[in-house]
Amino acid sequence: MASPGDIIVFDRHIVALRRRRAAADFAAHAFLHEEIARRLLERLADVNRVFPRALALGLSLNERPGGEQIISGPPSPAPQLLFDEEALPFAPASLDLIVSNLALHWVNDLPGALLQIRQTLRPDGLFLGALLGGDTLKELRQAFLEAEAMVEGGASPRVSPFADVRTLGGLMQRAGFALPLVDVDTLTVSYADAFALMRDLRGMGETNAHVGRRKSFSRRQTLKAMAEIYRERFGGADGRIPATFQVIYLTGWAPHDSQPKPLKPGSAQMSLTEVLGGKR
């Protein structure tokens, strides 16, 4: 929960409300969540470890050999536990694995959320997460900016801001994760028009929750102009439009003495000159 002085970017009440509204028909629009969940589980399958107590946020985590307990939390359509991702209800060092699928990009205090995740993990516990990155919906963002400027003489936040790779890499280190890894994937989805894209976003519970968003209904003329600009700027020869979803994957371990440690400066036993065969 935010405290006085915190920077508030997202309206968390609206995020929760839209997720609840989307839950009834979520399966019809869940392709993005399902695809990213599949990729997360592939990464997890590459880890030859047993995680006795795991938390799954936004995906179904099937029982793994040796697993004792799997807890599902939001934004899954039917979580076992309901809680705010900004305030995990778990004791320190109580979980062995946390997997998070599109659960963190609406969090106001992302540094604090990552710190909580790391503190909740037992030593040598694993965090594996995916969240939307800064290039997500870049086409829709540009089309709305141009349409509002043309029709209304100004612009309001229409697409929520997302973190970039460099920022997230720094936050993982700041949160105290060992062996942090941040990498990027891009999914491009084809739609008949901008309105079909917006329907999918509503169905996923992923519409704009920026605190500075327009609170009134959009003008019909602005929406029409946005759709036309979108098609003109980005549409293909078949008349369909692309929508970019940049997915940033985070991997990090709770520190443990058994993990590899970087060498101290000056402790190398061989110089670079020797490695290169005497060449400079």
What labels would you give this structure?
33% helix; Rossmann fold; alpha/beta; 280 residues
| CA(first)-CA(last) distance | 56 Å
The CATH architecture can be given as: 3-Layer(aba) Sandwich
Helix-strand string: HHEEEHEHHEHHEH
Rg measurement, Å? 22 Å
Biggest sheet, spatial arrangement of strands: 2-1-3-4-6-5
CATH class: Alpha Beta
* CATH topology descriptor: Rossmann fold
The percentage of residues in β strands lies in: 15-25%
Number of strand elements: 6
CATH homology superfamily: Vaccinia Virus protein VP39
Q: What is the averaged pLDDT score?
A: 86
Class from secondary-structure proportions: alpha/beta
Summarize the structure.
By secondary structure, the protein is α/β, with parallel strands linked by helices. It has one domain (12-256): Vaccinia Virus protein VP39 (Rossmann fold), CATH 3.40.50.
Structure commentary:
This protein is of the alpha/beta class and 280 residues long. It has one domain: Rossmann fold (3-Layer(aba) Sandwich). 33% of the residues lie in helices and 20% in strands. Strand 3 (95-101), helix 3 (110-120) and strand 4 (121-132) form a beta-alpha-beta unit. The protein is globular, with a radius of gyration of 22 Å.
SSE blueprint and pairings:
Layout: H1 12-23, H2 31-45, E1 53-57, E2 69-73, E3 95-101, H3 110-120, E4 121-132, H4 138-152, H5 165-174, E5 178-191, H6 194-204, H7 220-234, E6 241-253, H8 272-275
Parallel strand pairs: 1-2, 1-3, 3-4
Antiparallel strand pairs: 4-6, 5-6
Helix pairs in contact: 4-7
